[in-house]
């Protein structure tokens, strides 16, 4: 069986509805939410989205809270780096 959609990918299910720009934005979101991510605990590419914000690793069976459409959001990365920097400063000045 050949490919059914050449350009639109996963958003081919919407047909000509909703406009091309919205379908392109939705395609990016849907591809990211349906892809697998690497587990920080076991190192395998086996984390899948269970529901909005809940991510489950199939190999080590860990449940992780993350973003609604991606495992880690940009603001979470910023907070994590800020906390690490503050801990480093606190360790230097006892």
Q: What does this protein structure show overall?
A:
This protein is an alpha+beta fold and 94 residues long. 36% of the residues lie in helices and 17% in strands. The chain contains 2 helices and 4 strands. It has helices at 20-34, 74-92; strands at residues 37-38, 45-51, 54-57, 63-65. A 4-stranded antiparallel β-sheet has the order 1-2-3-4, with no helix packed on it. The model has no long low-confidence stretch (mean pLDDT 93).
Q: Can you give me a brief rundown of this structure?
A:
By secondary structure, this protein is an alpha+beta fold.
List keywords for this structure.
2 helices, 4 strands, alpha+beta, 94 residues, four-stranded antiparallel β-sheet, 36% helix, single chain
Strand and helix layout:
Layout: H1 20-34, E1 37-38, E2 45-51, E3 54-57, E4 63-65, H2 74-92
Antiparallel strand pairs: 1-2, 2-3, 3-4
Strands, total number:
4
SSE sequence, one letter per element:
HEEEEH
Summed up, the helix count is 2
Strand content: 15-25%
Report the span from N to C terminus. Answer: 66 Å
Mean pLDDT score = 93
| Spatial strand arrangement across the major sheet | 1-2-3-4
The major beta sheet can be summarized as: 4 strands, antiparallel
Class inferred from helices and paired strands: alpha+beta
Q: Write down the overall geometry.
A: elongated
- Rg, Å, rounded: 18 Å
């Amino acid at each position: 069986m050949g490919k059914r959609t050449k350009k639109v990918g996963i958003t081919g299910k919407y047909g000509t509805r909703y406009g091309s720009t919205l379908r392109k934005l939705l395609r990016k979101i849907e591809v990211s939410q349906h892809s697998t991510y690497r587990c920080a605990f076991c190192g395998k590419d086996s984390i899948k989205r269970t529901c909005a914000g809940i991510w489950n690793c199939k190999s080590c069976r860990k449940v992780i809270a993350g973003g609604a459409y991606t495992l880690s959001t940009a603001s979470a990365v910023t907070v994590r780096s800020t906390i690490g920097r503050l801990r480093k400063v606190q360790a230097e000045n006892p």
